[in-house]
Amino acid sequence: MPQLVFVFGTLKQGFPNFATNKGTRVDGDFVTVERYPLFLVGDRFSPWLVDAAGEGEQVVGQVFEVDQPALDAMDVLERITEPDGYRRVTMKVRAVGGEPASTLDVHAYVKQRAHFRPADARLGPLREYTLEHAALYRGRGAPSHLAQAAVLHPE
User: Fold this and answer.
1) Sheet harboring 38-41: ordered strands across?
2) Which among 6, 81, 95, 101 has most CB atoms closer than 10 A?
3) Cα gap 145→23, rounded to integer Å
4) Secondary structure of 34-48 in the HEC alphabet?
5) pLDDT tens-digit profile of 59-93?
6) According to the model, what pLDDT value does residue 38 have?
């Protein structure tokens, strides 16, 4: 049975980890009903949606309809079984510009609040993860680009 997944970062269409996303995109952009803090974190500039509803911004992203194998692949990428991995949760989103009462229940990948340290945030809170942000991202095992960190946080 297909499920809906809200993606806000590297799994978005045209972004670094989109190859893992085997879903079918639902037309348009979507926004979280609740506010959430979205940060770029660490030397890898990973996008973290922190599980802290009511804080941050209403985050913009995309919704995909996925089958179980596609959801399983996303779970592996997001490392949901690892202690420091993301957690798949359910939240509500609505179409950007859509009726506030018209919402979708979706899965989304969030980081546990206890794992977020403000000192590790390189940028944010953000409303949307953009291609400019994605250019800073480094996948696991990629070299760190501390020079980019210096550009975002000059001494």
Assistant:
1) 46-49, 38-41, 121-123
2) 6
3) 31
4) CCECEEEECCCCEEE
5) 999 999 999 999 999 999 999 999 999 999 999 99
6) 98
| Residue 151, helix vs strand vs coil | helix
Cα–Cα distance measured from residue 59 to residue 126, given in angstroms and rounded to the nearest whole number: 7
The encoded tokens of residue 41 equal 């974190």
Residue with tokens 């340290």: 117
State which amino acid sits at residue 1: M
**pLDDT recorded at residue 148:** 47
Q: Report residue 37 as tokens.
A: 């803090």
Which tokens in the block code for residue 60? 């913009």
Q: Which stretches in the chain have pLDDT values below 70?
A: 141-155
CA distance 130 to 127: 10
Q: Which residues carry out catalysis? A: 78
Closest CA to 17 of 129, 146, 113: 129
